[in-house]
Amino acid sequence: MLSQVESHLRSDRFPHIWCPGCGNGIVLAALVRAIEELGLNPDKTVVVSGIGCSSRAAGYLDFNTLHTTHGRALAFATGIKLARPELDVFVLMGDGDATAIGGNHFIHAARRNIDLTAIIFNNSIYGMTGGQYSPLTPPGKRATTAPYGNIERNFDIAELAKGAGATYVARTTTYHATMLEKLIVAGARNKGFSVIEAITACPVGYGRRNKMGNGLQMLLWQKEHAVTVKQAEKMNPEELQDKIIIGELYRGEAPEYTAMYEEIIARVKSKNQ
Amino acid sequence: MSDVVEMARLMQGNEAVVEGALAAGVRFFAGYPITPSTEIAELMAERLPGLGGKFIQMEDEIASMAAVIGASLAGVKALTATSGPGFSLKQENIGYAAMAEIPCVIVNVQRWGPSTGIPTAPSQGDVMQARWGTHGDHPVIVLCPASVREAYMLAIRAVNLSEKYRVPVILLMDEVIGHMRERVVLPRAGEVEIIERKKPAGEPKDYYPYRPDEDGVPPMANFGDGYRYHVTGLVHDEQGNPTTDPRVAESLILRLHRKIYDHLDDVVTVEGYQLEDAEVVVVAYGAVARSAKRAVKDARAAGIKAGLFRPVTIWPFPEKEVAELAVRVRHIIVAEMNLGQLKGEVERAVQGRVRVTGVNRLNGELITFDEILSAVKEVTSDAQSG
C-alpha cells in the first residue's frame, strides 16, 4: 500500500510533523490513492491547503501544492480553478480552518458550486495551536479555551454544505479509510463543489483532554460510533443520538461556476465578432 | 497625427486603471465592491470576458486577494481594486504574495478614514498602510498617479513591475483621480513595453522555485505547466519547503528586499517641475500635485523661485532624490491630504539640512492651490525677514 502512495509523496520531506496517533496521515494516504484511482495527471493536479496540522499535508505531496493563509484555502483555490479550469483542484482544510475563519468562503464556494473537491480533516479541535475549541467541538467537550466544557453547539458540516449549495457531500472516518478513498474519488468526479468530511483523531489536543485514550482507541471509537447511511435508515432518532452517519450523504444538480463563465466568454466573444 | 487625435477620449481615472491593466495583459480580476473604487470592478466585469479573461465578485476583500494570488499562480496576470477598509482586509494576503513572490496588483482608491469615514471624500491617509499594513518586514512598491492618463500608464507599470520582480505592487490613488474625467490620448498598442514574468527553462526536476537569478528574482513556473513545486507563506528554502532555519529566514527576507532595493533606478520614478533654480520646493503626490503645480506657476509669476517635486513611486521612498534636493533648496513644503505621512519620510531624507513645512488637510476636501501658494509665500517671506 505504501508503494502505491509513495510515488506521489515528497519523500525527502519526511518524517512528517504529525503526532503519534494522529489520523491525518490516513486522510493523506486516502487522497493519494484516490488521485491514483482517478488517473489524474500530477502536472495538472493542484492541492491547496489552509493552516493547521492537516494543512501541512500539501507540502508532503508531489503535485502543484499551495499552503495558504488560515481559512482562505478555498478562496485561493477559487482563483486557481477559475483562471485555469482544466486543473484538478483539491482543497485540504482543518475543521476550524474551514468552518470558523474560513466559514464564509466555505458557504460561498458551495453556493457557486465551483468545481473543487474540499476535504475537511475534522478532529474537533485546533490542534496546531494546542487544543482550543473549534466550531466542530461537540458541546460539553473540553478544550484549552473551554476548560469548563464547551457551551457552543457544533456545526453539522454536511448539512451546512448541503444548505449552502454543494452538489456532493459525504462523510466518513479515518477508521473507514477505504470508504474515504472512494468518497474522494466520487467527490472529484462530481462536476461542482464537493465536500468530504473526514473524521480524524487528535489524541494529543482533543482525546487526552476528553479521556478518549490514544490514537488506536480513538480509531475504535470511530468504528463504534459510525453507522452507514443504509444502517441509519433503519434506526430511530434515539439510536442515532451519538452516532456518526457515514457515506455519501447528498448529491445535487446545479450548474458549475467555471463552466458557466466559459459560456459567458463564448457569448461575449461571438457578439463582438 | 490624425491617429492620435482619433484616440483622444474622455476617461475617468478608475476607467483608465482598467484599460491600462487590460493593456498590460491583466486577464483576471477578483474584488468586492467598495466606494470609491467600484467602477474598476464594474468595468472589469464588462470588459474581461470579451478578452477571454475572468471576473469574479468574491464574498469579501480577503477572498478577493486570495483569488488574485491563486489566479496569478496559475499563470494569469491578476488585479484587484479596493479602498481603505478593504485594503486593511487584504493585508494578510498581500504579505503572503510578498513572501511567496506572487505577482499581482492591488489598486487602492483611497477614501477618507479612519474606519468608514467619508466614503466619497478624498484622502491620502493610506500612505503608511500601503507601506506597513502587513505584518513583518518586506519591501513594497507603491505608485501614485496624478492624472487620468497617468492612472492608465501606472496601471501598466504596476503590472510590469509586479511581473518583473515577482512582488505585489500597489497603485495608490485618491478619490479625486479615481473619479475625475479628463481628455486623454492613450499610447497605441506596441508603444508601451509589456513585461512577462521569467519562466524556468530547464528540466522540471532541476527547478528550484525560489533559487534566484543574479537579479535576485527566481524564474516562476505556473501551476499546471509541468513544474510541480510547493508554495507557502512559511519561511521556505530554495525548493519552497518550509524551514525554521534562522539563516534561511534571514537570507530569504534580505533577498526580498534586495530584489527591489538593488533596482531602485528602475523602480523609483519622480517628476520635477521648475526645479532647476528653485529655492522653495513643494513635494506633492496624487491629486494634490495638481494644486501644487498651479501654486508653483503662480509663485513664479509673483517672482518666487518655486518648484514641484512629485514622487510617482512613493515606496520605496525616493530618498536619494529628496536628499539631493535638500542640498540645493532653502525650503521644502510637503502638501498632502493627511497629517504628514509622507512628510516624515521627506524629513528623514532631508536629515535636517533644510526646513520642512507641511500643508495638510484632512476634512475630506482637496488642498487648493492658494493654500499651497500662501505656504510658499510664508516660508519665503520668513526667510527674508529672518
Automatic annotation (TrEMBL), chain A:
A single MF term (Gene Ontology): 2-oxoglutarate synthase activity
The Thiamine pyrophosphate enzyme TPP-binding domain, residue ranges: 51-197
Enzyme class of the recorded protein, top EC level: oxidoreductase
Keywords annotated in UniProt: Oxidoreductase
Gene3D superfamilies named among the record's database cross-references: 3.40.50.970
CDD domains listed in its UniProt record: TPP_OGFOR (cd03375)
Annotated InterPro entries: 2-oxoacid:Fd_oxidoreductase, THDP-binding, TPP_enzyme_TPP-bd
Position of the signal peptide: none
EC number in record: 1.2.7.11, 1.2.7.3
Stored Pfam families: TPP_enzyme_C
Annotated PANTHER family: 2-OXOGLUTARATE OXIDOREDUCTASE SUBUNIT KORB-RELATED, 2-OXOGLUTARATE SYNTHASE SUBUNIT KORB
Record-given protein name: 2-oxoglutarate ferredoxin oxidoreductase subunit beta
Lineage: Bacteria, Bacillati, Bacillota, Clostridia, Eubacteriales
UniProtKB/TrEMBL annotation, chain B:
GO molecular function: 2-oxoglutarate synthase activity
Stretches assigned to the Pyruvate flavodoxin/ferredoxin oxidoreductase pyrimidine binding domain: 19-245
Alphabetized UniProt keyword annotations: Oxidoreductase
Pfam families associated with the record: PFOR_II, POR_N
Classification via CDD domains: TPP_PYR_PFOR_IOR-alpha_like
Enzyme Commission number: 1.2.7.11, 1.2.7.3
Pyruvate:ferredoxin oxidoreductase core domain segment(s): 278-372
Protein name listed in UniProt: 2-oxoglutarate ferredoxin oxidoreductase subunit alpha
Organism of provenance: Desulfofundulus luciae
